[in-house]
Amino acid sequence: MARIDLLTDQPTDPAVERMFAEVRARGIPVPNLYRVLGNAPEMLRAWLDFAWPLRLNAKTPRAIRELLILRGAQVSGARYEWVHHVPMALAAGVPQAKVDALDGWQQSALFDDTERAVLRVAEEVTRGPGASADAIEQLKRHFDAEAVVELVLTASFYVCVSRVLLSMDIELEQGA
Protein backbone atom coordinates (compact mmCIF):
# COMPACT_ATOMS: atom_id res chain seq x y z
CA MET A 1 0.00 0.00 0.00
CA ALA A 2 1.31 3.45 -0.89
CA ARG A 3 2.77 5.38 2.01
CA ILE A 4 0.68 8.41 1.01
CA ASP A 5 -3.02 8.09 0.19
CA LEU A 6 -3.90 7.85 -3.48
CA LEU A 7 -6.32 10.49 -4.72
CA THR A 8 -9.52 9.30 -6.30
CA ASP A 9 -10.13 9.56 -10.03
CA GLN A 10 -12.22 12.66 -9.29
CA PRO A 11 -10.09 14.75 -6.90
CA THR A 12 -11.67 17.69 -5.09
CA ASP A 13 -8.87 20.10 -6.01
CA PRO A 14 -9.84 21.65 -9.38
CA ALA A 15 -6.18 22.07 -10.40
CA VAL A 16 -5.51 18.37 -9.81
CA GLU A 17 -8.71 17.43 -11.64
CA ARG A 18 -7.54 19.47 -14.65
CA MET A 19 -4.18 17.66 -14.62
CA PHE A 20 -5.88 14.28 -14.34
CA ALA A 21 -8.10 15.30 -17.28
CA GLU A 22 -4.94 16.11 -19.28
CA VAL A 23 -3.66 12.60 -18.62
CA ARG A 24 -6.96 10.98 -19.54
CA ALA A 25 -7.05 13.10 -22.72
CA ARG A 26 -3.83 11.35 -23.76
CA GLY A 27 -5.79 8.10 -23.74
CA ILE A 28 -4.49 6.61 -20.51
CA PRO A 29 -6.08 6.13 -17.12
CA VAL A 30 -4.55 8.18 -14.31
CA PRO A 31 -1.74 6.01 -12.90
CA ASN A 32 -1.23 5.46 -9.19
CA LEU A 33 2.01 7.43 -9.38
CA TYR A 34 0.05 10.54 -10.38
CA ARG A 35 -2.60 9.80 -7.74
CA VAL A 36 0.14 10.04 -5.10
CA LEU A 37 1.88 13.05 -6.64
CA GLY A 38 -1.48 14.83 -6.83
CA ASN A 39 -1.28 15.28 -3.06
CA ALA A 40 1.22 18.05 -3.92
CA PRO A 41 -0.46 19.77 -6.90
CA GLU A 42 2.48 22.03 -7.82
CA MET A 43 4.81 19.03 -7.81
CA LEU A 44 2.45 17.04 -10.04
CA ARG A 45 2.33 20.01 -12.44
CA ALA A 46 6.15 20.17 -12.51
CA TRP A 47 6.33 16.41 -13.01
CA LEU A 48 3.90 16.43 -15.94
CA ASP A 49 5.65 19.39 -17.53
CA PHE A 50 8.94 17.52 -17.39
CA ALA A 51 7.87 13.93 -18.03
CA TRP A 52 5.60 14.39 -21.03
CA PRO A 53 8.05 16.39 -23.19
CA LEU A 54 10.71 13.77 -22.42
CA ARG A 55 8.32 11.12 -23.66
CA LEU A 56 6.75 12.90 -26.61
CA ASN A 57 9.07 15.68 -27.80
CA ALA A 58 12.50 14.07 -27.71
CA LYS A 59 14.19 13.60 -31.07
CA THR A 60 15.98 10.38 -30.19
CA PRO A 61 14.14 7.23 -31.26
CA ARG A 62 11.49 6.16 -28.79
CA ALA A 63 12.68 2.54 -28.94
CA ILE A 64 16.17 3.58 -27.80
CA ARG A 65 14.74 5.63 -24.94
CA GLU A 66 12.46 2.80 -23.85
CA LEU A 67 15.43 0.41 -23.72
CA LEU A 68 17.23 2.97 -21.57
CA ILE A 69 14.21 3.35 -19.26
CA LEU A 70 13.71 -0.41 -18.95
CA ARG A 71 17.35 -1.03 -18.09
CA GLY A 72 17.20 1.71 -15.48
CA ALA A 73 14.05 0.13 -14.03
CA GLN A 74 15.82 -3.23 -13.83
CA VAL A 75 18.89 -1.80 -12.14
CA SER A 76 16.84 0.19 -9.63
CA GLY A 77 14.38 -2.63 -8.94
CA ALA A 78 11.36 -0.51 -9.90
CA ARG A 79 8.81 -3.14 -10.96
CA TYR A 80 6.07 -0.53 -11.39
CA GLU A 81 8.22 1.33 -13.92
CA TRP A 82 9.11 -1.91 -15.70
CA VAL A 83 5.49 -3.04 -16.02
CA HIS A 84 4.42 0.35 -17.38
CA HIS A 85 7.26 0.66 -19.89
CA VAL A 86 7.39 -2.84 -21.39
CA PRO A 87 4.22 -2.19 -23.44
CA MET A 88 5.60 1.21 -24.46
CA ALA A 89 8.85 -0.41 -25.59
CA LEU A 90 7.03 -3.05 -27.59
CA ALA A 91 4.77 -0.41 -29.16
CA ALA A 92 7.90 1.57 -30.11
CA GLY A 93 9.24 -1.45 -31.97
CA VAL A 94 11.54 -3.06 -29.42
CA PRO A 95 11.34 -6.81 -29.99
CA GLN A 96 10.27 -8.96 -27.04
CA ALA A 97 13.58 -10.84 -27.36
CA LYS A 98 15.49 -7.66 -26.55
CA VAL A 99 13.25 -6.91 -23.58
CA ASP A 100 13.89 -10.45 -22.33
CA ALA A 101 17.66 -10.10 -22.86
CA LEU A 102 18.11 -6.73 -21.15
CA ASP A 103 19.39 -8.19 -17.91
CA GLY A 104 22.29 -9.78 -19.78
CA TRP A 105 22.70 -7.14 -22.50
CA GLN A 106 26.49 -7.09 -22.22
CA GLN A 107 26.70 -10.74 -23.28
CA SER A 108 23.82 -10.69 -25.75
CA ALA A 109 24.37 -10.51 -29.50
CA LEU A 110 20.91 -8.93 -29.88
CA PHE A 111 22.10 -5.40 -29.13
CA ASP A 112 24.03 -3.26 -31.60
CA ASP A 113 26.77 -0.77 -30.70
CA THR A 114 24.33 2.14 -30.46
CA GLU A 115 22.07 0.26 -28.06
CA ARG A 116 25.09 -0.85 -26.02
CA ALA A 117 26.21 2.76 -25.63
CA VAL A 118 22.72 3.74 -24.46
CA LEU A 119 22.42 0.80 -22.07
CA ARG A 120 25.82 1.59 -20.57
CA VAL A 121 24.71 5.15 -19.88
CA ALA A 122 21.45 3.86 -18.39
CA GLU A 123 23.36 1.64 -15.98
CA GLU A 124 25.96 4.22 -15.00
CA VAL A 125 23.40 6.97 -14.41
CA THR A 126 21.13 4.64 -12.45
CA ARG A 127 23.89 3.21 -10.29
CA GLY A 128 25.33 6.70 -9.83
CA PRO A 129 26.81 9.07 -9.40
CA GLY A 130 26.47 9.59 -13.17
CA ALA A 131 27.66 8.50 -16.57
CA SER A 132 31.42 8.37 -16.94
CA ALA A 133 33.33 10.48 -19.44
CA ASP A 134 34.07 7.31 -21.38
CA ALA A 135 30.38 6.37 -21.53
CA ILE A 136 29.50 9.84 -22.82
CA GLU A 137 32.25 9.64 -25.44
CA GLN A 138 30.89 6.26 -26.53
CA LEU A 139 27.40 7.78 -26.79
CA LYS A 140 28.79 10.69 -28.86
CA ARG A 141 29.99 8.22 -31.48
CA HIS A 142 26.34 7.49 -32.26
CA PHE A 143 24.48 10.68 -31.38
CA ASP A 144 24.84 14.45 -31.70
CA ALA A 145 25.00 16.73 -28.66
CA GLU A 146 21.23 17.24 -28.51
CA ALA A 147 20.59 13.51 -28.45
CA VAL A 148 23.25 12.94 -25.78
CA VAL A 149 21.53 15.53 -23.59
CA GLU A 150 18.13 13.90 -24.20
CA LEU A 151 19.42 10.45 -23.32
CA VAL A 152 21.29 11.50 -20.17
CA LEU A 153 18.33 13.61 -19.07
CA THR A 154 15.92 10.74 -19.70
CA ALA A 155 18.08 8.29 -17.77
CA SER A 156 18.40 10.78 -14.91
CA PHE A 157 14.68 11.56 -14.80
CA TYR A 158 13.81 7.88 -14.62
CA VAL A 159 16.19 7.43 -11.69
CA CYS A 160 13.99 10.05 -10.01
CA VAL A 161 10.88 8.12 -11.06
CA SER A 162 12.17 4.89 -9.54
CA ARG A 163 13.21 6.62 -6.31
CA VAL A 164 9.76 8.17 -5.91
CA LEU A 165 8.01 4.88 -6.70
CA LEU A 166 10.13 2.95 -4.22
CA SER A 167 10.10 5.65 -1.51
CA MET A 168 6.32 6.00 -1.66
CA ASP A 169 5.80 2.24 -2.12
CA ILE A 170 3.43 2.86 -5.03
CA GLU A 171 1.65 -0.29 -6.09
CA LEU A 172 0.71 -1.29 -9.60
CA GLU A 173 -2.79 -0.48 -10.72
CA GLN A 174 -5.28 -3.32 -10.51
CA GLY A 175 -5.00 -5.47 -13.60
CA ALA A 176 -1.53 -4.19 -14.58
Note down, in words, how this protein is organized.
The protein is mainly alpha-helical. It has 2 domains: about 15-55, no CATH class; about 60-170, Up-down Bundle (AhpD-like), CATH 1.20.1290. The chain is about 65% helix and about 0% strand. The chain contains 9 helices and no strands. It has helices spanning about 15-25, 30-35, 40-55, 60-75, 80-90, 95-100, 115-125, 135-140, 145-170. Helix 7 (about 115-125) runs antiparallel to helix 8 (about 135-140) and helix 7 (about 115-125) packs across helix 9 (about 145-170). The longest helix is centred in the last third of the chain and has 24 residues, at about 145-170. It is globular.
CATH class of the largest domain: Mainly Alpha
Strand content: under 5%
| Cα radius of gyration in angstroms | 17 Å
Query: How much helical structure, as a percent, in the residues?
Result: 55-70%
What summary fits the major beta sheet? none
Structural class: mainly alpha
The total of helices stands at 9
Please provide the count of β strands: 0
Brief description of this entry?
With about 180 residues, the protein is an all-alpha fold. The chain is built from 9 helices and no strands. The protein folds into 2 domains: about 15-55, no CATH class; about 60-170, AhpD-like, CATH 1.20.1290.
Q: What are the key terms here?
A:
mainly alpha, AhpD-like, 176 residues, 2 domains, 65% helix, 9 helices
